[in-house]
Write a structure and sequence with these properties.
This protein is an alpha/beta fold and 290 residues long. It has eight helices and nine strands. Bound molecules: nicotinamide-adenine-dinucleotide. Residues 34-35, 37-41, 59-61, 64, 79-82, 107-111, 130, 134, 158, 160, 202, 204-205, 207-209, 212, 215 line the site of nicotinamide-adenine-dinucleotide (NAD).
Amino acid sequence: MRIDTAVFAASVPQTVVTITLMIDDFSGRIAVVTGGASGIGKAIAAASKAAGMTVVIADVEQAALDATCEELRVDGVQTDVTDPLSVASLADHIRGRFGNCDVLFNNAGVAPNGLIVQQTLRDWNWVIDVNLRGVVHVIHEFLPMMLENERSTHIVNTASIAGLTSVISAPYTATKYAVVGISEAMREELSQTTVGVSVLCPGLVRTNLAKSERNRPASLENPERRKRAAKWSLPTTVPPVVLDPSVVAEMTLAAIRNGDFWILTDPSLLALAWPRYEELRAIAFPGESS
Ligand SMILES: NC(=O)c1ccc[n+]([C@@H]2O[C@H](COP(=O)([O-])OP(=O)(O)OC[C@H]3O[C@@H](n4cnc5c(N)ncnc54)[C@H](O)[C@@H]3O)[C@@H](O)[C@H]2O)c1
């Protein structure tokens, strides 16, 4: 069947891209950072504090949480985002202590490695629990509260460039695609409210993500390692730039100020996503050159 380009284009719903209210002054605002005891979250916590916000870090790793809170002189609440009750108790703490949350960084995440054939169900469940269910639990608890905030507020969901193209392990990619999808749905549904939304899609950043196993719960440990030498690599045509987390943090705060939805720390990596759209375009419009 040949598709009429004009009819097809007219049938595509127009995306609402306007965020009605933007936060341009962070001073005195309340920021909550999940996964804030390390890496990108820690840098976001530091940048948020430097911008004048009162910061609360929520992280599962107690020792790192304590050390980071002491270093940055911010509050911390031990939180496991995989546990809805733990996230509810974090939200209760924020409501009781500060009344509401102004900027929510929904950032905690883990990354396993290995090929799809090597993943056990425990591997899948662990990554889905933290990277997908964890993000959902946080939105579920904080969004209703933030919608009641009389001031404009903002939620940043941390996905990855792996949310736009599959460059890393399948379970990780699956969760990050989901976070991008959730964020796009939130942008649409919240466009007429005072809650702004962004999705952070970093490329490579110098963090402790490669040591994620440190936070795997005992119940999801593999009884015997199924993994052989885990291998994945970015295509060599794209030179990987490894950013410092502080750079990502500054980009993130700038995006909130600008009301930007997409936060791409390394837009050149989008080249990895093109082949899919070219393939789909060729199916939709056969015979048209791109
Ligand atoms: N580092 C990168 O190259 C990169 C690239 C793209 C996306 N990301 C994403 O950035 C986010 C932050 O990761 P990072 O790179 O800073 O890694 P990191 O390991 O340095 O920090 C992740 C933090 O999440 C916390 N965490 C893990 N499980 C948790 C749980 N169940 N509940 C609460 N906290 C939990 C960890 O304790 C840690 O403090 C993740 O969502 C990750 O997927 C990272």
